Amino acid sequence: MKIFEANISNQVADLLTKKLSRVNLFETANEKLVDAFGINNFFGSQEEYEVFMNAISSTQNIVSEPDRTEYGDFQTNPNLAKAVTDFLKNQKKANPKLVIEPTCGKGNFIIAALSSFNQIETVIGVEIYKPYTWEAKFNIIDFYVSNPREHKPKIEIFHFNVFDFDFSSLLCKNSDEILVLGNPPWITNSKLSSLESNNLPQKSNFKKYSGFDAITGKGNFDIGEYITLMMFDAFQTSKGYLAFLVKKSVIKNLVFDQYRKKYNISELEKLNIDSKKEFDVSVEAALFYCKLNSQPEYTCKEYDFYQPTKIIKEFGWFEDKFISNIDLYHHNCEIDGVCTFEWRQGIKHDLSSIMELERINKHFINGKNEEIDLEEDLIYGVLKSSDLKQAVINQPRKFTIITQKNVSQDTSFIKQKYPKTFEYLHSHKAYFEKRKSSIYKNRPDFSIFGIGDYSFSPYKVAISGFYKSFTFSLILPFNDKPLMLDDTCYFLGFDNIEFATYTTILLNSDKTKKLLQAITFPDAKRTFTKDILMRIDLYKLATQFSDLALQAEINSINKNYNLQVSLDKWDDFLQTLRPKNLFKQLDIFSLTEVKAPRTTAVWRNGG
What we know:
Shape: elongated
Strand order of the largest sheet: 3-6-5-4-7-8-10-9-11-12-13
Number of helices: 22
Largest sheet: 11 strands, mixed
Number of strands: 24
């Protein structure tokens, strides 16, 4: 049965019908329900009460339930909610007097808390979706009917936007223990904006990224992360605990920002859950737990929620470095420094159906299955993340049109020099104009991004940004042209094959792989980023290789790929790698506003 689009059990419907059958005023009804179940302000107005009473007496109250998963709304099932509160009670010895759930949904966490803790005096739930506020109230009544007890805490379910609610007004006495509990939405601000949701903070760029970083996505954030930080701001000086079910990437971000924010939280823990089993979704999620009102800590211990006694690993800040596995890092930290060369990201065009082509005989076929005749000069082979699986690559699966040599170059030359290519691009101009990213705003026609002199280096060493298992690939020219990479890849460019080969050998060494395992997070949207790759100190790595070991690796590459690379340029390579003036360079974490004594290479936008 449904009332106000909210599920209500027959048991609760019958009980409320009897209890309120002779009540005419909503204020009187509210008093009866406070006395019976502790729920304050059950009805908000006389009109609401009358609609409710009419609906509860009618059999025509079946309403289909909307699918809210697109809003990141994954309701916690009662068993998981109870397992979380039991964990807090038994493992963490929590026994709060005040329980706060900032996105309470249907009330499963509130009911779990009522079931687990015996000293609760007040429960506060906040929920923006009106039918859920009703369902939470109905479910609480259902719980009390099945579990009668004398003491019932004061319960308040607010129909409110969490971003507008004044949580600071809930601060209690210093001696009272609080528990901030819940499962905030698993969705980003940009996704909610695209759904035209009003459940958004007023300022979406809450980390205050500016310029290029905000444009290219660093200003995007997870709603669950924002709400967690709101709770830190409101309750970090209150005695108690916070426990949220959030995406694993959110927990990583919270620990990362803790270095700068220094919230009064400690005992940070990440307890992995089986999201497929619990929510039937393929999202990497975990329970984030921390203690409030304590000396700030900057590392987080990771466990399996279902077996929380054995630590998996510890991650977080070690000195001025952010580490995914602190124990593994201790054994490989000597090569964590500054890469002498600058890592670049591949080209971006946001039009794969138009700009990415396959060659069939002397013609090209685009993603719309159109056969095209183009001049060859602007056509380059292009590699994507899925192509970077071999140690050496010398031919592509796909091709692309390179319309510029830098991001600001005027493209009018194409019409005069390459009429076939211009005709093709112009015939699809509408697609270019529909590209949403602001990086193309006020740019020449058919612009691409992430292009520069470095893109045309004949030899490259490249890695996919996405895959957990990885290989650094040596990229060779194809038909006397450099192979390009798309923006899912990162690369270093070289003018000679020797330097590129030496670098490939260094980067594929066990030492490098172990460092990357210690500083990367496999559940991140991109396992490898420019920030991560710039931490590999190639000079320190190179000095650990013996000539004998290098020669063996070179011999293997030469034999397997029919190359003729020698060690003759090794000394020149070492000289190029040697840091020249480290203290005049920018810090590797400058983009994240983390101040550290170490300084690193100058960064440039665009690739």
